[in-house]
Amino acid sequence: MDDRTTRPLMRARLTLLLCAGLLTAGHAGAQSTAHAEDVKAIEQVLETFRTALVNKDKPTYMSLFFSDKPEDIGWQFVSEDVRLQDIRRTKPDAIKARQIPSNNFISLIDNAVASSTPKEEVFSNPKIETDGDAASLTFDYTFLSDGVKQNWGKEMWQLIRTEQGWKIFSVIYSVRDERSPAAK
After folding, report:
1. Sheet strand arrangement including 165-175
2. The pTM is what?
3. Exposure pattern of 3-36 as b/e (b: 16+ CB <10 Å)?
């Protein structure tokens, strides 16, 4: 092949590659915009959770979850080791991650509503991953009762996007308190 034959072929290939790149970039840009909107919506779920707890607003709080049934929503804590050792002094059968049916998302808001002292969960370092339909949200939390730090740790939520918006499907969290090494 001489130069006259290869040049048009190379131009056609280059044009095809550029078009494919533009289409891909356009699609990625559209996805980024959509995901940016999802991230904002998920951040709003987190803020609504926080303010519903502070305001003792059970209906708003409950609307954040995929179901209003405790058995449908994963809700599990895990104790930090030093804290667990201390608990075992009075409860020798204590384990790191015991499922306690009464410890669920409804009991959290019910306890806040029933309490005469303010309750608040403070969040920091949120990280959101989503494909637009499923998401994970990870953050550090501090739980305050009457402005006093009670416990803290890492919290992880799984969320799904429904026709009614983003809903919390499961929550897992670590628990550290004044017995934990980081507190000293």
Report:
1. 74-79, 165-175, 148-162, 134-145, 119-130
2. 0.79
3. eeeeeeeeeeeeeeeeeeeeeeeeeeeeeeeebe
